[in-house]
Amino acid sequence: MSISIALTKGRLEKQAIAMLEACGYGVEQLKDKGRALVFYDTKKDVKYFLAKPNDVITYVEHGIADIGIVGKDTLLEKSGDVYELLDLEVGKCKFILASLKGNNPLEKVGHIKIGTKYPNVASQYFHKKGLEVEIIKIDGSVELGPVLGLSDGIIDIMETGTTLKENGLVVYDTVCDISARAIVNRVSYKLKKDEVLQIINDLKEGKQYVESNQSK
Fold first, then answer.
1. pLDDT per position as a tens digit, 166-189
2. Chain-centre distance for alpha carbon 71
3. Which domains are present in the chain?
């Protein structure tokens, strides 16, 4: 049976292509894609298409894609009725709580205001701590929130921490670690189980091959 795979555009796309190529998939069209969005494997019965992170989950949930590769950050924020089968261990970063030095939001008495691009993640984090919080959705640079006094702190993704330091912010807590995951449509997992698991196993092998080459 033919399998459709939705890839998140950008860095995760490139890392997924490297894994697939490492285990014998024909990804030439993906590597030289121009402006196309749908591609066909030259060696296997697989179709690929590129989408934004939230859309990858949507396509997999509705069965347009059998398999999707997307960041755990997107899965935590959007969720979706899908199976999460594999941690690809690439695109690693963290959700963190940060604010100005000496202004730990967790120690504030009374009303806490948190700026974030990820309101669901932020709400769940503070709910688990038993703290009441006002979530302020910010689509741009969330670091501005504490600096300008809009929020007491931020929940955001941190890779290197450089942007935080440059804006005078410090990390007060790690919410969770995040990385790229392979997700699967629930019906596809039943009807195309052998094909789906073959690709998941191939991705595991590809991941190990790419990791071993990077360590050399």
1. 889 999 999 999 999 999 999 999
2. 1
3. 3-91+179-214 (3.40.190.10), 93-177 (3.40.190.10)
